[in-house]
Write a structure and sequence with these properties.
Radius of gyration: 21 Å
CATH topology of the largest domain: CD59
CATH class of the largest domain: Mainly Beta
Number of strands: 11
Helix content: 10-25%
Strand content: 35-45%
Distance between the termini: 54 Å
């Protein structure tokens, strides 16, 4: 009798439903046109994310997107070369259609200082922002092309390997203040390298 009751209980238990989330992919206009979608499994969460590129302190482009994602994709990252900075903010939530609001990126100085390049001068100080806890440089051969600040995920071994796989430029990071010293700058690859970095990491 107990076994019969147990079998009936299992049969008539309500099925656990997967989350329903808003979904949209970034369009060239930056506008996010929403639709709803059901996530593939109960492990997924609803994501909202924004990626903003700055040039000279002004917004150059902004991409917004929403989708189902795994929790480990809910991160905040940025890379900052002084004149150019790209920052991504994302938030995950666990409830049907809970990803309605876009996150706001934070950009306050954090006390970390790295070298950056202006023209041919690569000894200029850059005040890192947000979670930019590393100094970064991008090199081609022995010549440093870019210097600045970056967040931990961008400087992880796995992320750097992914970027280096797609580009002739080599990304390297260090942890101390002003640790990205030496060599000269060539800034003509900024507009190519920054989008490449984020495309390799997040799309």
């Amino acid at each position: 009798m107990f076994l019969f009751t147990l079998v009936l209980g299992v049969l008539f238990l309500p099925e656990a439903n997967n989350l329903k989330c808003y979904e949209c992919l970034p369009a060239p206009s930056g506008i996010c046109t929403e639709k709803t979608t059901e996530c593939p499994s109960q492990d997924y969460r609803c994501l909202t994310a924004t990626e903003v590129a700055f040039k000279g302190g002004a917004v150059l482009s902004a991409l917004n997107f929403k989708r189902c994602t795994m929790p480990e994709q809910c991160v905040e990252n940025s890379v900052n070369y002084g004149t150019y900075r790209v920052a991504k903010s994302s938030v995950c939530c666990n409830g049907d259609l809970c990803n309605a609001q876009m996150p706001k990126s934070k950009s306050t100085p954090n006390g970390k200082k790295c070298f950056t390049c202006e023209g041919g001068n690569c000894m200029k100080t850059l005040n890192c922002e947000g979670n930019e806890s590393y100094c970064i440089k991008a090199t081609k051969g022995k010549n440093v092309t870019l210097k600045g600040c970056a967040s931990k995920l961008i400087c992880s071994d796995q992320s750097a390997a992914r970027v280096n796989q797609f580009s002739p430029e080599q990304i390297s990071c260090c942890h101390g203040d002003y640790c990205n010293s030496t060599s000269r700058a060539s800034t003509n690859l900024l507009l190519l390298l920054v989008p490449l970095l984020f495309s390799a990491l997040f799309f």
